[in-house]
Write a structure and sequence with these properties.
By secondary structure, the chain is mainly α. The chain has seven helices and no strands.
């Protein structure tokens, strides 16, 4: 694929990932200027692209993945002046990374992700819970891991990875 096409696809993937991770989450403090939001997203994109995504060329284990979610949260602390809670919560951080990995995996640009994007729909469609955890306010890694454990059990019952299981459910919507 030529660079122009590849750049276009990667920009679209980032737009979709930021949109999916941030659209229902009140991550910004009131009255934050659009230029500051743009600068934050660009800094986060650079951090993730340089420090996290290269790891996923090969399979990454669950604990390394969790550490990467935490690294995104830590990197966001540099933008505490514009972020509610002074950094991204677990819900937004996992959704951003897991969406990015899902898209890159589907393009054969990354190994199979250890987790899937966690949201209300995947919890309900996967019959994980009749009362799903509100991922937009999720700020406890133990809660996140508990849900992923249930998803992993459901995937194992189907003989699938978590990523394959979620993609199957997503495609049936």
């Amino acid at each position: 694929m030529n660079t122009l096409k590849q750049d276009f696809l990667y920009n679209e993937i980032w737009l979709l990932s930021f949109g999916g991770a941030f659209q229902h989450v009140r991550i910004y403090k009131p009255n934050v200027k659009e230029k500051d939001k743009t600068a934050f997203r660009q800094a986060l994109k650079v951090f993730i692209s340089e420090h996290i995504l290269p790891q996923y060329k090969k399979k990454v284990g669950e604990m390394a993945h969790v550490l990467n979610i935490e690294a995104i949260r830590a990197a966001s602390e540099d933008w505490s002046k514009i972020l509610n809670g002074n950094k991204l919560n677990v819900g937004a951080s996992q959704k951003l990374l897991n969406l990015l990995l899902k898209y890159l995996w589907c393009l054969n640009e990354a190994a199979t992700p250890p987790h899937c994007p966690l949201d209300r729909i995947i919890q309900q469609k996967g019959l994980i819970s009749n009362s799903p955890v509100n991922w937009t306010t999720l700020n406890d890694m133990d809660d996140y891991l508990h849900i992923m454990h249930k998803i992993k059990q459901a995937a194992n019952e189907k003989g699938q990875s978590i990523a394959e299981w979620e993609l199957t459910l997503f495609n049936r919507r």
